Amino acid sequence: MITDVIKVFAPSIFAFIVGILITPFWAGFLYRHEMWKKKAGKVAPDGRATPLFNELHKHKEVGTPRMGGVIVWGSVLLTILAIWLVSIFFPSELTSKLNFLSRNQTWLPLFTLVAASLVGLVDDWFEVSGRGQYISGGLSFKKRLFIVLIIAAIGAWWFYFKLELSEIAIPLDGLINIGWWVIPLFIITMVGLFASGVIDGIDGLAGGVMAIIFAAYAGIAFFQNQIDLAAFCAVVTGGILAFLWFNVPPARFYMSETGMLGLTTALTVVAFLTDTVLILPIIAFPLLATAASDVIQLLSKKFRHGKKVFLIAPLHHHFEALGWPAYKVTMRYWIISIIMALIGMVIALLT
Description:
Low-confidence stretches: none
Number of domains: 1
Structural class: mainly alpha
Largest sheet: 2 strands, antiparallel
Strand content: under 5%
Number of strands: 2
Distance between the termini: 22 Å
Helix content: 55-70%
Number of helices: 14
């Protein structure tokens, strides 16, 4: 038990330290090469202008680098590789137990995190360099969605054919066999979480929410005796906290697509590995609410002759438009995230 606790928490602390140490070098690179949007502004997914958003954020988007998510997945990758290499070159009972890079628990979420993050890094590069056709640059929404669908299809195939997953847990009830429906369920879940990436819009908001979610899953995996997976989630939490240290207002850099794309896709894998996909909407409620607000706004404008439900979508910008200071929106999102994560953990442990 004590060894398991150390195995989970020690790498998390190490990831936080690694993130803090690499940040000055990465931040220096971002500022030296002016890795930020060259033109402020945003359009809605339906292609329409968002003048109210542009007015609220006209001084924030230009001059603050993107690609801050590299700190998150970079510290995770360095931590996992460092511990694995130590276990290889300095074999002992201790180093062997601390190594949590395992085929059945961490290979898939780690691969998903890094692969999706690299795709996000390309998108961020296109955006800061003004390439592509998305707003002021970057990959279009359709191209990013297509890539996510490919990642989701591969993950769904792996879970159904390789891991032979065909049952899911019904909260507070039991298992139900859904057969091949696992495949579309996995894809829908990953696409839904991809859509929730729009939560990355206020200093510290996305980082705090994602840290709470992954910390909750570290606890769930630990109590399910998935110690390697628990360590992975804890390391991700440590990496996010390192990023968050520099992202409190005013943000030193933004997480952007290289952070959110990797985290949301990896979260899908973690939810299925812990068999808590039906509890995920509770644990990740702020992500669900954010994505839903965008969908509701789009449908309302389409079917109600341009009428809007929110002043701005997604939801956190609506609160800004109502006059809430950005820090108040962020802190209240964090509070809701903690409450919902605790509720989800209790349900998961009772299932």
